[in-house]
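Propose amino acids for all 305 sites.
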């Protein structure tokens, strides 16, 4: 998969891919203060691009920026148009969209507050985040030795650039140990989430997911809860330990990038019989149909381009 495209929206202009560059003394590059989003557009039945839950992603970007005290130099409406234009200009009907707000160069040091704020929206073609096999057969997780950022040290509700050092170290550790992804616990030892995905566990028809205390409140998580409720299932939001996975019948991860990815095993212990279960497959099917514009009651979440 290539991250290439023809144009990147850069502070209000469409800039050719190769020219979308910044200075090496850009503040965010050194200290990590920045906020981003991950959004997906899918080709709709009429051949147009449809952006899934764009409004919620834009609101979360603004919230992330507020939490780190960045003032957006463009309005939410301009950003919405930027996302649509980036798809149009690149002739993408299906793509991953990456808005990013970051500080440019000017002054150095942690107290610098007047560096210019830059905003980009890039788009690229991105297939299954955890691989084509992972999305069909499920992924293998390892409980991480890195716990999720403590809530007094980082803002778990925010997609902040620097927070992802925590996720990357956990992901590297899991991959180096032969697993696909890390399962991250919070500072009390309760299950939090993956490195960039929320998690769900199912046993005896009871579906549970950690509450939004020390996890990123995923928009896919919300979609999944809506889909499950519509299908007549109850979803419990409460804390549980890793052992819930050891006795689960089914489990899956979800995120804009990961979509709905079944969990095959955790710490080498198979989840159920190690293959995706019926509820997981049902959610996966409905979610993919929904984002592709094939589910009536979820149509209102799609912004056509
Ligand atoms: C982005 C992200 C998710 C998934 O959120 P979505 O809104 O569903 O894409 C989950 N956890 C972390 C840490 C994330 O960064």
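Proposal:
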């Amino acid at each position: 998969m290539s991250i290439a495209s023809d144009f990147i929206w850069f502070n209000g202009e469409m800039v050719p891919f190769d020219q979308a560059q910044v200075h090496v003394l850009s503040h965010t590059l050194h200290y990590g203060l920045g906020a981003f989003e991950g959004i997906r557009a899918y080709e709709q039945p009429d051949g147009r691009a449809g952006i899934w839950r764009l409004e919620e992603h834009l609101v979360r970007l603004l919230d992330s920026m507020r939490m780190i005290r960045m003032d957006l130099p463009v309005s939410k409406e301009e950003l919405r148009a930027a996302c649509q234009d980036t798809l149009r200009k690149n002739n993408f009907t299906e793509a991953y969209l990456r808005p990013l707000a970051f500080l440019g160069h000017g002054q150095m040091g942690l107290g610098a507050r007047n560096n210019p704020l830059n905003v980009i929206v890039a788009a690229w073609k991105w297939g299954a985040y955890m691989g084509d096999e992972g999305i069909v057969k499920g992924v293998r997780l390892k409980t991480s030795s890195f716990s999720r950022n403590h809530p007094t040290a980082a803002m778990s509700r925010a997609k902040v650039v620097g927070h992802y050092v925590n996720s990357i170290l956990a992901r590297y550790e899991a991959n180096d140990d032969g697993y696909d992804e890390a399962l991250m616990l919070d500072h009390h030892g309760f299950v939090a989430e993956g490195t960039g995905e929320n998690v769900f566990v199912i046993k005896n028809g009871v579906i549970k997911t950690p509450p939004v205390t020390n996890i990123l409140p995923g928009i896919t998580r919300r979609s999944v809860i809506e889909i499950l409720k519509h299908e007549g299932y109850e979803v419990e939001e409460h804390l549980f330990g890793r052992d819930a996975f050891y006795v689960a019948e089914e489990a899956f991860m979800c995120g804009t990038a990961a979509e709905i990815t079944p969990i095959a095993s955790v710490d080498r212990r198979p989840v159920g019989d190690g293959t995706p279960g019926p509820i997981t497959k049902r959610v996966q099917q409905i979610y993919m149909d929904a984002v592709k514009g094939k589910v009536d009651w979820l149509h209102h979440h799609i912004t056509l381009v």
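The chain has eight helices and 17 strands. The longest strand covers residues 95-103.
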